Description:
Layout: E1 3-14, E2 17-28, E3 32-36, H1 43-50, E4 58-63, E5 66-67, H2 73-79, E6 81-84, H3 96-102, H4 112-122, H5 124-128, H6 139-151, E7 157-161, H7 169-184, E8 188-193, H8 196-201, E9 205-210, E10 213-218, H9 220-225, H10 227-233
Parallel strand pairs: 3-8, 3-9, 6-7, 7-8
Antiparallel strand pairs: 1-2, 1-4, 4-5, 9-10
This protein binds adenosine-5'-triphosphate.
The site of adenosine-5'-triphosphate has 13 residues, from β2 and α1.
Protein name: ABC transporter ATP-binding protein
Pfam family, one: ABC_tran
InterPro entries: AAA+_ATPase, ABC_branched_ATPase_LivF/BraG, ABC_transporter-like_ATP-bd, ABC_transporter-like_CS, BCAA_Transport_ATP-bd_LivF, P-loop_NTPase
Amino acid sequence: MSDILEVKDLVVSYGKIKAVKGISFTVGEGEVVSLIGTNGAGKTTTLRTISGLLRPTSGSIRFRGQDLTKVAPHDIVSLGLAHSPEGRRIFPKLSVEENLMLGAFSRKDKGIRADLDAAFELFPILQERRAQPAGTFSGGEQQMLAMGRAMMSKPQLLMLDEPSMGLSPLMMKRIMTTVTTLQEQGTTILLVEQNAQAALKRATKGYVLEVGTIVLSGTGSELLASDDVRKAYLGED
Length: 237
Ligand code: ATP
């Protein structure tokens, strides 16, 4: 598997506080890579830095060999990285379809309509309610919309920040099943989650982040079987 994303010795600070303290990881073509860790571990900071919304203090981020650390966020989207943010950040007053179309802002090709249909196929509720204001959606439906919107940029790498947050077990299962579906359709995924069980079950590879440092890495099944992960993240004695 060739790596499409390579993060090396990444340090990200807020003023004097280092939130990410020199992490390195890779995402190979076709993989689902999970970054897990508790509140404040630096997961969101890492994704926001890859997307160009934050700038690193040091270290490199290479996407297909190109350094992203000086590229503007909208150009990073055009290069093929999409970010479904923590908290979803949908536009509540815009319709479902308008929200989806915003995901395609960087595209000039003729395939946008077909991808809108693909998003509707992935999440039929979005089609049923395409004309309604997105603010009327439940948390789970908003998560579907956020993922659908990210897919509208036709990404080579989809980054999902805590898609399961605040969802019922059933809705969480639905969202996580979609992660697998997207991978089967050829999308490479970087998944940030506090829900270690759900995230590692689907991961080809995982990294455990603790206060800005990667403390453990391995295949999803290796990490799920690890005593440290079971005790710290799966609530086992
Ligand atoms: P969560 O799951 O709670 O979002 P996380 O792993 O995504 O956690 P981050 O949000 O990346 O963690 O936060 C990492 C550290 O950086 C935390 O200590 C947090 O308090 C700090 N931090 C995050 N955003 C800011 C900010 N805008 N200004 C100052 N410190 C921040």
